[in-house]
Design goal:
Order of helices and strands: HHEEEHEEEHEHEHEHHEHEHE
Helix content: 25-40%
Number of helices: 10
Radius of gyration: 21 Å
Structural class: alpha/beta
Number of strands: 12
Shape: elongated
Largest sheet: 10 strands, mixed
Strand content: 15-25%
Strand order of the largest sheet: 1-2-3-4-7-8-9-10-11-12
Low-confidence stretches: 96-108
Bound molecules: S-adenosyl-L-homocysteine, iron/sulfur cluster
Length: 357
C-alpha cells in the first residue's frame, strides 16, 4: 500500500509496527509517518485502527467474554474470550507451562485468548451452541488478528515480555476459512510477535484443510487440535454429522502429514456427553484409537457445557474422573480442561452472541 502511494517499503514497516505493536487507534497517532503523508492517506480514504470491544461479560473466575465489532456494515459482532489462567488445556503441550503452573512466574504468563474465525458455524455439531447460529459470515484476516490486538491492548500485555497463548477455538471452523485464518496467523507471528508454538488451532476434521495446514512452514504453523469427541465413527457420525463426509481414519491420515516439531504433540479434544460418550468402554476405545495412530498425542477432555435448546446432559463428575483415570491407566497423556466462564456463556461450545447475557 505504501509503495502504491509512492513511498519506500520501509514506510510500510513503520505502519505495520504502529498498528500491530503500538496498537494505535488512528492514522493521526502514527507520528513516525510525516504529517503530510498521513493527511494524504486520510484524503484517499485509508483508516487504521483495531476492532472495538463492544461489550464485556466478566465471570467470577476471571474469564472475560467480549463482543468484538466486525469491520463490515452488517454490524455483526464476534466473540473473543480472555482466560487469565488458561483453561488447563495448555498442560502437557511441551511449552513448559507446567513449570509456570507451579508458580515460577507471574500469573500473566499463562493467559490464553480464545479467538473466533467465523461468525457462527456451518458444521452443525449437535452439542454446540455456535452451530445454532448457522454460518453468518467468515471473518477477514484483519478481523481475526484484530481480536487479539484489541484484547492485548485491553490488558496492557507487553508482547515479548509476557507470554500469551492463543487458541483458535472460538466461533467457527478455522479450516473452512483457511486463507483468512492463515493470513491472520502470519500477521500475529510476523507483526504482533507471537510464537506459533503458543498457538493452537482446533478443527472439527476438515480433511482438505488439514492437508493444506500440513504444508505450512513451521515458522508460521500453530499446533493442531482435532475435535475427536467420540470413540468410533458410529457415535461420531451422530454427534458430528461432518464425520459422514470425513470419517475418523481420513482425519488421522491427514493429521499424519503434519511434520511435528520436536516435543510437539497433536491434541485430541474429547467432549464428554453424559451417557453418550463418557462410558468406560468409550475410554477403552479412545485409548486404542489414539495408540493405533502412533502419533505423539494428548487427549484434552472437556465436560460438555450445556446450552439452551441442546438435548444432551452434562457428564457426572465421577464419570469424568473415571474416564480420565481409564485413559491414564492405558498410558495416554490426558488432561482435563477446566470449564472457564460458564456463568457468562464463555465456555467451550457456548459462544452464540448471547447479548442479553
Ligand atoms: N470449530 C472448531 C473450533 C472450535 S473449538 C472445532 O470444532 O474444533 C471448540 C471446541 O469445543 C471443540 O473441540 C468442540 O468439540 C468443543 N465444544 C463444542 N461445543 C461444546 C460444548 N457445548 N461443551 C463443551 N465443549 C464443546
Ligand atoms: Fe462449528 Fe466447532 Fe461448534 Fe462444530 S464444535 S459447530 S465445528 S464451532
Amino acid at each position: 500500500m505504501m509503495v502504491e502511494a509512492g513511498e519506500p517499503t520501509w514506510r510500510g514497516k513503520q505502519l505495520a509496527e504502529a498498528i500491530y505493536r503500538q496498537r494505535v487507534e488512528g492514522l493521526s497517532e502514527i507520528t513516525t509517518l510525516p504529517k503530510s503523508l498521513r493527511q494524504r492517506l486520510t484524503a484517499v480514504g485509508w483508516e487504521v485502527g483495531r476492532p472495538k470491544i463492544a461489550q464485556v461479560f466478566k465471570s467470577v473466575d476471571g474469564t472475560e467474554r467480549y463482543l468484538v465489532q466486525g469491520q463490515d456494515e452488517d454490524g455483526l459482532t464476534v466473540e473473543t474470550v480472555w482466560m487469565p489462567e488458561g483453561d488447563g488445556g495448555e498442560a502437557g503441550d511441551g511449552s513448559g507451562i507446567e513449570a509456570e503452573w507451579a508458580g515460577e512466574t507471574g500469573s500473566r504468563s499463562r493467559a490464553t485468548i480464545c479467538v473466533s474465525s467465523q461468525v457462527g458455524c456451518a458444521v452443525n455439531c449437535r452439542f454446540c451452541l455456535t452451530a445454532k447460529l448457522g454460518l453468518q459470515r467468515s471473518l477477514s484476516a484483519g478481523e481475526i488478528a484484530g481480536q487479539v490486538v484489541s484484547v492485548l491492548e485491553r490488558h496492557g500485555v507487553e508482547v515479548g515480555r509476557e507470554r500469551v497463548n492463543l487458541v483458535f477455538m472460538g466461533m467457527g471452523e478455522p479450516f473452512l476459512n483457511y486463507d483468512n485464518f492463515m493470513a491472520a496467523v502470519r500477521l500475529l507471528v510476523e507483526e504482533v510477535g507471537l510464537s506459533p508454538q503458543r498457538m493452537t488451532v482446533s478443527t472439527s476434521g476438515i480433511v482438505p484443510g488439514i492437508e493444506r495446514f500440513a504444508g505450512e512452514p513451521a515458522e508460521v504453523r500453530p499446533k493442531l487440535a482435532i475435535s475427536l469427541n467420540a470413540p468410533n465413527d458410529e457415535v461420531r457420525g451422530e454427534v458430528m454429522p461432518i464425520n459422514r463426509k470425513w470419517p475418523i481414519a481420513a482425519v488421522i491420515e491427514a493429521a499424519r502429514k503434519v511434520r511435528l516439531r520436536s516435543r510437539e504433540r497433536i491434541t485430541f479434544e474429547y467432549v464428554l456427553l453424559g451417557g453418550v460418550t463418557d462410558q468406560l468402554e468409550h475410554a477403552a476405545e479412545v485409548a486404542r484409537l489414539v495408540r493405533r495412530t502412533g502419533l505423539p498425542a494428548k487427549v484434552n477432555l472437556i465436560a460438555w457445557n450445556p446450552g439452551p435448546g441442546i438435548e444432551y446432559t452434562m457428564p457426572q463428575a465421577e464419570a469424568v474422573e473415571r474416564f480420565r483415570a481409564a485413559l491414564g491407566a492405558e498410558g495416554i497423556a490426558v488432561y482435563l480442561r477446566r470449564p472457564r466462564g460458564r456463568d457468562i456463556f464463555a465456555a467451550c461450545g457456548q459462544l452464540k452472541r448471547t447479548v442479553e447475557g
